[in-house]
Amino acid sequence: MRVLRQLGPPLGLILAFFAGWETLVRLWEIPTYLLPAPTQIFQAIPAHLEILWLNSGVTLAAVGLGFGISLLGGLALGIAIFYSPMLERALYPILIASRNVPLFTIAPLLIVWMGFGLPPKVVVAVIIAFFPLVVSTYDGLRALDADLVNLFRALGATRWQILRKLRLPAALPFIFSGAKLSLVYSIIGAVFAEMVVGGQVWRASGVVAGGLGYWIRHATNFGHLDLAFALILWLSGLSLVLFGCIVWIERHLLRWQRVERI
Amino acid sequence: MELRIEDLHKSFPHGASSLRVLNGVCLEATCGEFVAILGPSGCGKTTLLNILAGLIEPDSGRLLLDGHQVPDYRSHIAYMQQKDLLLPWRTVLDNAILGLELQGLPRQQAHAQAQALLERFGLGGFERAYPHQLSGGMRQRVALVRTLLLQKPIWLLDEPFGALDAMTRSQLHHYLLQAWHDQKATVLFVTHDVEEALVLADRVVVMTARPGRIKAILDVALPRPRHVTDPQFVALKAELLELLHAESLEERVYESS
Ligand SMILES: Nc1ncnc2c1ncn2[C@@H]1O[C@H](COP(=O)(O)OP(=O)(O)O)[C@@H](O)[C@H]1O
Ligand SMILES: [Mg+2]
Predict the structure, then answer these.
(1) Which of A17, A98, A153, A252 is 20 to 30 A off residue B68, Cα-Cα?
(2) At what angle do helices B166-183 and B136-148 cross, to 10 degrees?
């Protein structure tokens, strides 16, 4: 019931949007290569299921690797910067500045260096997904109440115990906001790289397996806008599912934040 | 364990100059003695305990345990700070066992020990609650249980019952005295409540206004349980109030560079 009340209004709005879209396309008889009607888009999904299915795997591999590396690397570097004032002074300003630089634009160069395939996509994903995690981990570790550290010291805790049982749990809410941002960035990075990387050398069951990004660009170039929109819709669905997974884990680990007063 | 503090000095940086907080504190607590420390707020009581717990370094002075300077004296001391400092992501039970867990005791064993003490301190049924679900008084009690569970020979308690109403307070005095008796600990108990000091302590130490030093020490040679209406109790209370009143009029700020 609660879920229905929460999801109802946005779903209704989306449905209304699609209905308006459908009406306009039919009323003005807009051709498919300019703007397909929602019904055409939905029909394109089962018609091209193989493309969607195979390329989802390709894209998810790049997203998963990019996000995984960003998560582990970001946590490690965030912790390292926290413990090393020298690293902090040297790296932190660069990290903050790098957020305002469009680093993903080096994607074409990466292809020159690394060729086609998974590696350049993962690198682009990591390049933009890594920094939010470093910064949020570091900020989270820094936000800790010094009195709590004193409590642990008075209880005779080791440095490792203080990190594991105090600093990291206390930083967890920060780390999760960084991880959510980082996930969105790794999807953007991987898909953008696929668009740039273009045609894939290897094929699976006769389908070019360049990933969803490659196919969005390809379908657009060749006027298959129904397929392009179907891919975009499909990709949005995948992103939402991935995001939902993180939110679910977050809710589970941070459930103490939501319990009510007795 | 016998505790001896010799000529403790401490100043904090204060702008360009420094704020002298402790000015030659000397204090002794014999083995198993319950000592209450009274003093106007800001006189350095918390600073004194922080030094004894090893959280801050004194400028000068010595701390002796059983007559010796012990390098790892911290491991003999259980300190309950003025703030309850519970971890918001841990339940009451898991907060209570924190010290035991950090010492490497298996969780199951620690839980069993904590359970009994939590019940005694009126927290039965709240084991699975999180700190922000509790009242200030309950949170303080969890912090106290966490401290007592360590079974250390010396307890430093900084206003442990500050956030409690009178009723629960006198109940908890009873339990605290029981635990003190069971564990035969040496206790330094900071409070701003004269009656509380007299109900609990063998001796009451009165500190001066900042910079703090010991102004007077009163023996409380009354059998427990003590009654606030006992004429001797009333006389001691009057004497302590007198001492404190004089100090509160004399708050001074020493600044030296
Ligand atoms: N870390 C610190 N840095 C600077 N001043 C401090 C610090 N800790 C305490 N003080 C000052 O020392 C004085 C004594 O503080 P405290 O020991 O907490 O007093 P009490 O516990 O008796 O109320 C206060 O004026 C306080 O502002
Ligand atoms: Mg204090």
Answers:
(1) A153
(2) 0
Q: Is the pTM of this model over 0.90?
A: no
Q: Which member of B83, B89, B129 has the closest CB to residue A169?
A: B89
CB-based contact B57:B51 (threshold 8 Å): yes
ipTM for this prediction: 0.84
Domain hosting A220: range is 48-253
**Residues A41-49: contacts with CB within 8 Å, 24+ apart?**
A41/A226, A41/A229, A41/A230, A41/A233, A42/A230, A43/A226, A44/A226, A44/A227, A44/A229, A44/A230, A45/A230, A45/A233, A45/A234, A48/A227, A48/A230
Nearest CA in chain B to A164: B102
Residues having CB closer than 6 A to ligand 1 are B 12, 19, 21, 39, 41-47, 210
pLDDT at A49: 81
Dump the DSSP string for B36-102.
Answer: EEE--TTSSHHHHHHHHTTSS--SEEEEEETTB--TTGGGGEEEE-SS----TTS-HHHHHTHHHHH
Query: Residue B150 and residue A254: Cβ atoms within 8 Å?
Result: no
- Supply the Cα-derived Rg of chain B in whole angstroms: 18
Ligand 1 atom at shortest distance from the alpha carbon of B47 = 17
Whether A164 maps to a domain, the answer reads yes
Give the one of A151, A153, A259 whose C-beta lies nearest to B130's C-beta: A259
Greatest C-alpha distance within chain B: 54
At B217 the pLDDT is 94
A222 φ, ψ (degrees, to nearest 5)? -100, 15
Domains and CATH numbers, chain B: 3-84+153-256 (3.40.50.300)
Radius of gyration, alpha carbons of chain A: 23
Q: Is residue A15, in this structure, part of any structural domain at all?
A: no
Distance separating alpha carbons of residues B91 and A200, to the nearest angstrom: 53
Give B52-65 as a DSSP string.
HTTSS--SEEEEEE
In a domain, A237, yes or no: yes
Neighbours of B101 (CB within 10 A): 19
Residue A27 placed within a domain: no
- Residue B161 C-alpha to ligand 2 middle, in angstroms? 13
Number of domains comprising chain A: 1
Pairing of strands B255-256, B17-29: antiparallel
**What CATH number should be reported for the domain holding residue A188?**
1.10.3720.10
Q: Which residues of chain A have pLDDT under 70?
A: 1, 198-207, 261-262
Q: How far apart are CA B210 and CA B239, in angstroms?
A: 21
A31: three-class secondary structure by DSSP: coil
pLDDT grade for B80, boundaries at 50, 70 and 90: very high
